[in-house]
Amino acid sequence: CGVGGEARLSLGRLEPDVAYTVQVAARTTRGVGAFSSCDVQTHPCAPSMVSRAAPQLVRAFHNKLRLVCEGPVPDWREEDGSDVLGYRARYYECGGGGRVF
């Protein structure tokens, strides 16, 4: 994932035709923010994204998903710049007993 603005993330080694919940949080100098999440599924079915704040599915493959993340809402003045250092992502299989990868 990139820093500030838009970030891209590719998750690999996923199972075909399996639903996953993906959660992403910004990591700043003040700590890790709240996670935004979305439910996605590898081919043949990929659900549409509901929230603009959540990660968005760019493309689904049989064993990986390509996502795009929009940056956090700024809480600083434009001239101060962003304090976002990076992003943390986690995902788990829907109905998989909460196992986090």
Automatic annotation (TrEMBL):
This is Fibronectin type-III domain-containing protein. Gene3D superfamilies: Immunoglobulins (2.60.40.10). SUPFAM superfamilies: Fibronectin type III. InterPro entries: FN3_dom (IPR003961), FN3_sf (IPR036116), Ig-like_fold (IPR013783). It comes from the Eukaryota.
